Amino acid sequence: MAQYSPELDGVFVALADPTRRAVVRRLGLGPTSVGDLAREFPMTLPSFMKHVRTLESNGLIRTLKSGRVRTCVLNRERLDLVDDWLAEQRRIWEGRTDRLEQFVTDPKEEGR
Question: What is the pTM for the complete model shown?
Answer without folding.
Answer: 0.80
